[in-house]
Amino acid sequence: MSLSAGHIPSLPGTYVLSLFLKRECRLTVGKLGAIFFKPGFYAYVGSALGPGGLRARLRRHLKAQKKYHWHIDYLRRRARIVGLWAAAGTHRLEHRWACRLIASRPHAAVVDGFGSSDCSCKSHLVHFELAPELRDLDRILGAQWHWSWVDGDLSRSAGNDG
Fold first, then answer.
1. How far, in Å, CA of 127 to CA of 43, rounded?
2. Which domain holds residue 105?
């Protein structure tokens, strides 16, 4: 099954997108300027606390043609979404999750300021050599997921946001 926003409810929450970039590339990312991205997997942490919640935000991330608004929009030109983990809730978990992801990968490439213009953490984007797995994210973030999707498999759990 391919991922579509219709599979995710319109609840507020926090999410992690797993993206795959097949080849290295240099992209101009808004005010951050030209950035070199190495191939591999990236985990991007975001929140969807506004109208339409997780469904509306995911719908935008999946859209091929869009006006570039967020840093992730630029990377999405080249990178494909291969996973989504989302937890419903109104708590602002984005900063905590991004910091934990970065701490879990002390030698990982991060793009300073990527996705974190309105946050005090270093970045909301972390590079992984191999695809992050749900159990790794559970351990790193201390979260129990409500919805997860990895390359065609959507599942719902009875977990709570962490």
1. 7
2. 11-156
Domain membership of residue 1 (yes or no) is no
**Helix-strand-coil percent breakdown of the chain, rounded to 5?**
25, 30, 45
Note whether residue 116 is domain-resident.
Answer: yes
Q: Is residue 3 part of a domain?
A: no
Does a structural domain hold residue 98? yes
Q: What distance in Å separates the CA atoms of residue 106 and residue 1, rounded to the nearest whole number?
A: 34
Number of domains in the chain: 1
Q: How far is CA 81 from CA 19, 32, 89, in A?
A: 4, 22, 23
Render pLDDT for 15-36 as a digit per residue (tens, 0 to 9): 998 899 999 999 999 999 999 9
Q: CA-CA distance, 12 to 146, in Å (whole number)?
A: 12
In single-letter form, the type of residue at position 153 comes to D
Residue range 40-50, pLDDT digits in tens: 999 999 999 99
Residues 30 and 9: their CA atoms lie apart, in Å, by 30
